[in-house]
Amino acid sequence: MNFLMAIIDSVAGFVRRNPFTTFIILFLAIAAPAVLKGIALFILYFIMGLILLIVVLTLAFRWRIYRARKQMEEQFGRSGFDPREGFGSPFSRRETRGEDREGEVKIYKTSGVPEKRVSDKVGDYVEFEEEKN
Hints:
The longest helix is centred in the middle third of the chain and has 44 residues, at about 35-75. This protein is about 55% helix and about 5% strand. The radius of gyration is 37 Å and the shape is elongated. The protein has helices at about 1-15, 20-30, 35-75, and strands spanning about 80, 85. Among the domains are: about 1-30, no CATH class; about 40-80.
């Protein structure tokens, strides 16, 4: 019963807010029902066309995502998740070679003098040291 009352209240509110539109709709319903039927069919077809467009775009989007996923699977290897290896990415699988043993630490020493970033031909360059006050 509350649902029916809500519908009646909303229709009454529409009539109060749009009296001219309501008058035109009633006039067309009485004087020219074929025109009103044509308008109603146009609105119906327009709404159905929008729904169909949304469905088609959704299916096309899903198909594009599916194709992109398949392409990535072909490019990066097998798909799926294996708890022992992680995801099927070639970066997650470590092949055990002699130099890639677990726990091994490698230390590389770099030269002590940093390479000069500014050429001698470019203006004046003054080296400075910061002093703490």
